[in-house]
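@channel sequence for tomorrow's demo:
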Amino acid sequence: MKKSDENKTIFKQWTSVLLIICVFAIFISGFCLVVSGFNPEEQAKKELYSYNYNTDLDYKVYLKPNSFFNTDYLGMNKQYITSLIDRIDVTANYNFTSTKKLDYTYSYSISATPKGLYEGSDGKNVEVWSQTYPLYNSETKSGTGKSFKISQPISLDYNSYNDLMNNFREQFGVSIDGRIDLTLNVNITAGLAGESAKDLNKATSISLKIPLLQQTIKINPDYISTGHEVVYENQGDNQSSVNVTYILFGVLLMIFAVVGFIILLKKLLVITKKSEYLLNYNKIIKDYGDIIAETKNAPDLSKYEVIRVKNFNELVDIEEELHSPIICCEVKPDSECWFIILNSGVAYKFTLTEEYFEHLIRE
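structure tokens (generated this afternoon):
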């Protein structure tokens, strides 16, 4: 038996499989390098800092004197009767927090924009008129630190804007809907503390959409209340649009991987065939060792009529009938073995090879 050879062959099989996996990983690495080479700006980015911001427009709807409500105002997210609205008090809030200390400058403004809206043929509202009225403009403020806050109260005279839209509709005889957008605009310029470069230039707008010309209204916020962003150092201004080194090295890795894959695959196929041969050889010797005589030299079959047997089981049947031993001779180490029964000028021959052997033929 060749148990040690069988174990070595199986070990070589698994080694080849692992090497193929490694070659595949090399190919993926090369591909990633090529992709990175065509996108050098992604490699050039260096994170300077990140920041979070939280913003909201908090409001209270103050009521005219009436006998139905026991409070002076109603809170957020309710349905409001237009004829009872006196004013809407809004507090605009904006909180900025950075991971590093910054030199910053910011300003903000609050405006009201009444709009006349007409429903088009496609069912969408089309703006037919609008006018922006500034309600508050802050001075430009500067500072150094990781955070700053804005909290600015403002009072909106809802009825004056509602009357304005009523007059517009009556004067032009146009059936329109109305809305007023109350907007907070924040502009920020910042850079790392002590440095001249200003890497952050951000403008943020958040709004409340307040319906007009309706008997009851619901105020709708139009903004995202929180956000997170990263600021990168700009390193790509003078760089080429591609990274040639990355691309060439990536292509070389891919070529190496493809060649290695072909070589290893061919080797694995050869080893697999050899492994199948050894498994069958060892099984035959183990199961039928008592009727097999192993020889180092192949017998001379030139004086015999040779009959090829298509499988080893048929050769065993012949041995049981003739009571002649089966001669075993490996003519090609680890790849081809003859099993022969000699009787009365006839040689019954079964050939075990790496390939599928032929069916019964006469030589």
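heads up for whoever presents: The first strand starts at residue 46 and ends at 63.
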